[in-house]
UniProtKB/TrEMBL annotation:
Pfam families: RHH_1. This is DUF6290 family protein. Residues 13-48 form the Ribbon-helix-helix protein CopG domain. InterPro entries: CopG (IPR002145). It comes from the Bacteria. It comes from Geoalkalibacter halelectricus.
Amino acid sequence: MGKSVENPKRYIISCRISDQEMETLQEIAKAQGTSISTLLRRSLNLLEENHDRPQA
């Protein structure tokens, strides 16, 4: 039986990125002490928050 988690991740998304983009992701994730997956989830949350804000 698999591990039960509060917020299961059911989808895998993949895309091609350049060497420079990968290096940037790795550097930022390392500086934040997190994984690239968590970094991208945080980025998505920030984009969502900005999208929900009224434009000035």
